[in-house]
């Protein structure tokens, strides 16, 4: 869970998750929404993957990224237990 919180601690990574919530995207498509380098986007995607917030699938020559909602559901369930 520490990796999840570390990944969510960055505004760029949170914005990437919002983009992926709408649709699966390639790294290039994601990068077009930001004013930072493609290697920086790749770094953010790698951290999101390590936290299991994002998964990737190779389709032809492109890698498509998608949000992993099950880890978010687990996180929300854990947060709800704090309120009880």
TrEMBL record:
One of its GO terms (molecular function) is DNA-binding transcription factor activity. Keywords: DNA-binding, Transcription, Transcription regulation. Residues 1-84 form the HTH arsR-type domain. The keyword Transmembrane helix does not apply. The keyword rRNA-binding does not apply. SMART domains: HTH_ARSR. It comes from the Bacteria. It holds the Pfam family HTH_5. This is Transcriptional regulator. It comes from Sediminicola luteus.
């Amino acid at each position: 869970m520490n990796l999840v919180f570390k990944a969510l601690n960055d505004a760029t990574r949170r914005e990437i998750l919002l983009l992926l919530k709408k649709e699966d995207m390639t790294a290039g498509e994601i990068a077009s929404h930001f004013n930072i380098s493609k290697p920086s986007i790749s770094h953010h995607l790698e951290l999101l993957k390590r936290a299991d917030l994002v998964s990737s699938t190779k389709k032809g020559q492109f890698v498509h990224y998608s949000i992993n909602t099950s880890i978010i559901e687990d996180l929300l369930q854990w947060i709800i237990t704090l309120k009880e």
